[in-house]
């Protein structure tokens, strides 16, 4: 790539801090000057950041697909985005046929420095062209039909007295974090302590099967027995088996839209 005195301005939208830091580090080391003008971890943060940069929009967006509050495709529904996009994703090439249809570049995680260079070279060649048109509905459908490239946990080993017991994921209803202890709740109503935080479990479990309802609960789809409108912007879930002490399990306000999309997949 030909060096230029004008740095390329990049915006990173990524909900995994380590992945965002690694990408920013690779961009900093790149031969062509690249300046990261901002980072966001959610669709809402990305919208606010892009709106604040309207006077001087970035030259490229690095977008993760799954964000804290939904899919990054929602950005194209909320805003008119003309900036070229490079998606960063763990999904395999089958899923990414849709990206080719939409003329979108992508990088598979973990990002390889040489692939990053190739993507930036491609961006450089297209800088004088109009940004590609996005079909968010097509991208979403292709993503839902695809299988993630990574493998998720199939069982958890727990302690029962002096014994160890393996609990298959199929038997798990939900995880609850109470007083700094994470409990695995089975569909039969049994509880076991596990040595994971809910944040760690989110990365270990299939996101098509489990959803982080709020700070304290991560539930399997089959464990959500009922959903009730709590307020105009909140939802209450009834879990089966019942939550400890019949606790009211609300969906966090910022997750409501993502929760509805997850249910309607």
Describe it for me?
The chain is an alpha/beta fold and 265 residues long. The protein folds into two domains: 8-145, 3-Layer(aba) Sandwich (Rossmann fold); 155-263, Beta Barrel (OB fold (Dihydrolipoamide Acetyltransferase, E2P)). Helices cover 27% and strands 32% of the residues. The chain contains eight helices and 17 strands. It has helices at residues 17-29, 43-52, 74-78, 97-101, 113-126, 136-145, 198-204, 256-263; strands at 8-13, 34-40, 60-64, 66-67, 70-71, 85-89, 105-108, 155-160, 163-168, 172-178, 181-186, 191-194, 210-212, 217-220, 224-231, 234-239, 249-251. It is elongated and about 65 Å long. The mean pLDDT is 83.
Summarize the helix and strand pattern as letters: EHEHEEEHEHEHHEEEEEHEEEEEH
Total domain modules: 2
| Low-pLDDT ranges | none
CATH fold descriptor of the largest domain: Rossmann fold
GO molecular function, one term: transcription cis-regulatory region binding
Keywords: DNA-binding, Phosphoprotein
Pfam family, one: Response_reg
Domain HTH LytTR-type: 156-265
Write the layout of secondary structure elements.
Layout lengths: L7 E6 L3 H13 L4 E7 L2 H10 L7 E5 L1 E2 L2 E2 L2 H5 L6 E5 L7 H5 L3 E4 L4 H14 L9 H10 L9 E6 L2 E6 L3 E7 L2 E6 L4 E4 L3 H7 L5 E3 L4 E4 L3 E8 L2 E6 L9 E3 L4 H8 L2
Parallel strand pairs: 1-2, 1-3, 3-6, 6-7
Antiparallel strand pairs: 4-5, 8-9, 10-11, 10-14, 11-12, 13-14, 15-16, 16-17
Protein name: Two-component system response regulator, LytR/AlgR family
GO molecular function, one term: phosphorelay response regulator activity
Organism: Hymenobacter swuensis DY53
């Amino acid at each position: 790539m030909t060096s230029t005195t004008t740095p390329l301005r990049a915006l990173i939208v990524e909900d995994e801090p380590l992945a965002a830091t690694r990408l920013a580090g690779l961009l900093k080391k790149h031969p062509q000057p690249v300046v990261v003008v901002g980072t966001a971890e959610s669709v809402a943060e990305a919208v606010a950041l892009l709106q604040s940069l309207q006077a001087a929009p970035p030259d490229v967006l690095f977008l993760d697909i799954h964000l804290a509050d939904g899919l990054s495709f929602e950005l194209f529904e909320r805003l008119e985005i003309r900036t070229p996009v490079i998606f960063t994703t763990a999904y395999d090439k089958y899923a990414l046929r849709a990206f080719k249809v939409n003329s979108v570049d992508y990088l598979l995680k973990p990002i390889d420095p040489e692939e990053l260079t190739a993507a930036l070279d491609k961006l450089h060649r297209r800088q004088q062209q109009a940004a590609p048109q996005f079909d968010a509905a097509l991208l979403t459908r292709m993503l839902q039909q695809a299988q993630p490239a990574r493998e998720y946990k199939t069982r958890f080993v727990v302690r029962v007295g002096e014994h160890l017991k393996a609990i298959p994921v199929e038997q798990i209803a939900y995880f609850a974090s109470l007083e700094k202890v994470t409990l695995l709740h089975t569909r039969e109503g049994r509880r076991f302590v596990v040595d994971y935080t809910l944040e760690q479990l989110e990365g270990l479990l299939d996101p098509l099967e489990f959803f982080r309802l709020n700070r304290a609960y991560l539930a399997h789809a089959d464990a959500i027995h009922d959903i009730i409108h709590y307020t105009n912007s909140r939802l209450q879930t009834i879990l089966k088996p019942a939550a400890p002490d019949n606790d009211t399990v609300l969906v966090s306000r910022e997750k409501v839209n993502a929760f509805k999309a997850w249910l309607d997949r």
